[in-house]
Amino acid sequence: MGANNSKIRRKSSENNYQILSTEQLSATSPGETDTNKFKYIEGRRFHNWPDIHYDLPNDEVEIDRLHLEHFLIRDVWQSNFSSPIHEQLLSGCNALDVGCGPGAWCLDMATTYKNSKFYGLDISPIFPTEIKPKNTIFQECQILDGIPHKDQTFDFCHMRFMFPSFDENQWRTYVIKEVGRVLKSGGYLEISEYKLCENCGPVLKRLLDLRSEMMTNIGRNPNIASLLGEFMGDTELFEEINYDEKIIETGSWGGKLGEVARDDIFTRMHAIKPALMNHIKYSGLGITSEDYDRMMSQCIDEFNEYKTYFVTCRWYGKKL
Ligand SMILES: C[S@@+](CC[C@H](N)C(=O)[O-])C[C@H]1O[C@@H](n2cnc3c(N)ncnc32)[C@H](O)[C@@H]1O
């Protein structure tokens, strides 16, 4: 057993967390473990909210990945947002980050825009609670139960990489409307996602296809990033819906940024491994854990060989 696992065990006895194997997870009915904040699968820590299908971990490895990804994305865009909201943020306004994770975006923004207040919401309490800028407020919350703020509270609402969090119907009929509700008239909503991968090698394509298949099985639309502008339009809450995209050259062929992007993808593939192995097992695909690790390593070589790149996009619109 590695150091990581023994650490998790220690935490487990101290905090009464539960360690579940993949088999135990699939045998667990909703609500059966909801007295515990977290659950553990194959050495990774996950949220334990009933009825939420978000399948990425929330442990230290994932927290580090999300922090690193924040700076990668900021470098790719050369900015933290595209909405024309800079002046308002400078003079002081309220901003909300929905699904803030460890709070990297809020913390970075709060340091730049000291007169504004940044509120972060997430199901996992992985954001800082004590050592943080004064103008940040984080709260544990399940968005699908409603955002715990009054109508028209925020000048800017931001959401990033929430694709695995909601199914297509939730995006279409609830999530954007609910975020729109807490946005002030004249305020901006901005949603940022990964859109697609181009020039994939065969092994990466296989892994991405498996991921899409698994997501489709639980109602997620792997092409949701392309539809978000349409969903924003459907709410009839926004004018001026804008779209922009950037490519992220992945692998050392893309220079230093490409290497960071490669490491991010590699860590993300590790992060989705428990969920994907579960899908692989129940689909009878015969890919073992060792096969999966081998495929991940092969992807690293493919990035340079095929000149793989990912496309990331931002949708943003002004509330009427
Ligand atoms: C891929 S992470 C992105 C985090 C952050 N937005 C960023 O860009 O670094 C998605 C986050 O959404 C959170 N999340 C998933 N479903 C949620 C829900 N129903 N309500 C609130 N947060 C949720 C997860 O806990 C996770 O921290």
UniProtKB/TrEMBL annotation:
<dbReference type="InterPro" id="IPR041698">
    <property type="entry name" value="Methyltransf_25"/>
</dbReference>
<dbReference type="InterPro" id="IPR029063">
    <property type="entry name" value="SAM-dependent_MTases_sf"/>
</dbReference>
<keyword id="KW-0489">Methyltransferase</keyword>
<keyword id="KW-0808">Transferase</keyword>
<dbReference type="GO" id="GO:0008168">
    <property type="term" value="F:methyltransferase activity"/>
</dbReference>
<protein>
    <submittedName>
        <fullName>S-adenosyl-L-methionine-dependent methyltransferase</fullName>
    </submittedName>
</protein>
<dbReference type="GO" id="GO:0032259">
    <property type="term" value="P:methylation"/>
</dbReference>
<feature type="domain" description="Methyltransferase">
    <location>
        <begin position="96"/>
        <end position="187"/>
    </location>
</feature>
<dbReference type="Pfam" id="PF13649">
    <property type="entry name" value="Methyltransf_25"/>
</dbReference>
